[in-house]
Amino acid sequence: xxxxxxxxxxxxxxxxxxxxxxxxxxxxxxxxxxxxxxxxxxxxxxxxxxxxxxxxxxxxxxxxxxxxxxxxxxxxxxxxxxxxxxxxxxxxxxxxxxxxxxxxxxxxxxxxxxxxxxxxxxxxxxxxxxxxxxxxxxxxxxxxxxxxxxxxxxxxxxxxxxxxxxxxxxxxxxxxxxxxxxxxxxxxxxxxxxxxxxxxxxxxxxxxxxxxxxx
Length: 215
Known about the structure:
The chain is an alpha+beta fold. The protein has 3 domains: 8-67; 77-131, no CATH class; 145-214, no CATH class.
């Protein structure tokens, strides 16, 4: 524990930056506190097995009780149930068309008093970081763009005849700035893969005949 008292607002900043993926060294430099202090409060926060959103509404005295006068407490039953559901979530997310939202709906049917979607997703991210392997990649601006086709196809419908045609959907992302581009094309041919130069990268652009609509 630090020899000098640290403001609760700064402790919250340590926890917030930690949940956003910042390293202990970066947090230490950004907030001008020692790495030992950062490590101490991150470790105490992790032992609580709660999310950052869980502490944002706490007053200083409540946060002090949780982090500075921390005692060994039993993990709440609701959280135990949630974490026991995550191995199934991890397996199902590998299937085409399965989303975290659909799995959250399945979870709430099984446990009606369970967590809301935002906390469900946050707890899953925390659980995934704890149990899954991580690989950190340093991206240089403008160096690489990652592209992959979605497994599930969308459809084009001819507004005049009602004819339905399958379309491929690919997603491209710039690693350094996470700027994402999504486009639907008629094929996976190289000619269709190249996006038009003037198309904004933040919108879905569909290469199709004017009389079609996408569904």
